Amino acid sequence: MRIRPVGAHALLLDLAPDREPARAEVAGRVEAWRAELAHRRDLGELAAVEIVPAATTVLLDGVPEPEETARLIAGWTPRPATAGSTADPVEVPITYDGEDLPVVASHWATNVAAVVDRLTRTEFQVAFCGFAPGFPYLTGLPDALALPRLPTPRSRVPAGSVALAGPYAGIYPSPSPGGWLLVGRTGLVLFDVTADPPSRLTPGTRVRLVPA
Amino acid sequence: MTNEIVVLRAGALTTVQDLGRPGYAHLGVPRSGALDPAALRLANRLVGNPESAAGLEITVTGCALRLTRAATVAVTGAEAEIRVGTRPGDPGRPLSVPAGAVLRIGAARNGVRNWLAVSGGVDVPPVLGSRATDTLSGLGPAPLRDGDRIPLGTPVGPPPPVDLTVGPPPRAELRLAVRLGPRHDWFTPAALDQLFGTAYTVSPVSNRVGARLAGAALPRAVAGELPSEGIVLGAVQVPADGQPLIFLADHPTTGGYPVIGVVADVTPLAQARPGTTVRFHGPQR
């Protein structure tokens, strides 16, 4: 781990300091640190307005004393990533009828039924949110099944679309342009500003994409 | 009778803004809020509002509004002609607007944006603790349109007797302090020389998400893609074309291009017109 200063009031915990790609092992380190930092903040041991996990990093923003905080963090060891996630996985009902299923099957050198089976059996975890409010980046697929994006993004992907890109699965909480490969859709509302928290799938949440 | 602002002319872009919605970046929710929070806070103080009250952020071409009840208003930010009915009004001072009178804020003569506070504050329903319009994600109220009626809250107290309202006019050339990192090691030494040694200009495609700059491209030492990582206000991101982009209030929460450095204070960019010269210097100066 390397702690990089970001401006005057933020720190970036770099969990792939040798620029290794966002493989499953790195995602495990990110989740362990996210959970550890959130726990320390709850205990009052860490002051930060934002704790933002991402592919290979955790950003702490709104840190009043970043140098002192960096020294403090350097002395911490995160508990194993599984320690905090004892709750049952959230089951997201999916209709597997995405128009890119054949493309995914071709990349994975298999057929559409086997793709759906693989996605159904995989236990995913929300690695981070980004791109749009409530958009979850789900890890859990083997690194070897990473997929390219569409060469030309679609101008509009409907809300609830379930899609794959790189090592991730994702679910579009709202309609937007998008370049991920579409495998299905869900009617589950992922982002509701009247709910607390507003996101159904927050970082660290385990997820299953079950057939509707 | 309801207490409202009736929008007679919304102008190029007028949005409701307050101090934004921090604390939700881990869910992909941008901070948003006024591009110059100090200017909105000042306008609020001048009319007796809490500094966190919502007001309007007005862009380039001004706007015209009618208030259905009498109110104290204050306008801060760019130099602009202000009229209450036919009477001229000063910026940076409390102005009394009678019920039914038309308040006109003219085009920004210098700079880009104005902030308007109205006693009682703009009282649209808060979304995740903020009334701010987020132009990136669409959270909060839509930008104002002609004919909109915007609810006003109840004034809580009288304006303070005095406040410091004299601010420097926008400068022709901005000098911005930058702290390198977190990804300056993705760039060549020549890129760092260019960042600190050459002038950039503000591009016309700048908006509330970011100020795009045009100038010497910043060459990369590391090829390939940066995995997405968290973004802070003022981050200087360098996309594939090498032209830096400084993130402002509606910035995305994560990004996949390397951030070469972070600007300490982005508020001068709220008034930077396209073509404004920007020079960077290190924080030690």
Automatic annotation (TrEMBL), chain A:
Keyword check for Mitochondrion: no
Pfam families the UniProt entry points to: CT_C_D
Source species: Micromonospora avicenniae
Name of this protein: Sensor histidine kinase inhibitor, KipI family
Carboxyltransferase domain segment(s): 1-201
Organism superkingdom: Bacteria
Keywords associated with the record: ATP-binding, Hydrolase, Nucleotide-binding
Upper classification of the organism: Bacteria, Bacillati, Actinomycetota, Actinomycetes, Micromonosporales
Single GO MF annotation: ATP binding
InterPro entries (alphabetical): CT_C_D, Cyclophilin-like_dom_sf, PxpB
UniProtKB/TrEMBL annotation, chain B:
SMART domains named in the record: AHS2
A GO molecular-function descriptor: ATP binding
Segments crossing the lipid bilayer: none
Record-annotated Carboxyltransferase domain positions: 26-285
A Pfam match: CT_A_B
Record keywords, A-Z: ATP-binding, Hydrolase, Nucleotide-binding
PANTHER family from the UniProt entry: 5-OXOPROLINASE SUBUNIT C
Protein's UniProt name: Biotin-dependent carboxylase uncharacterized domain-containing protein
Species name: Micromonospora avicenniae
UniProt lineage: Bacteria, Bacillati, Actinomycetota, Actinomycetes, Micromonosporales
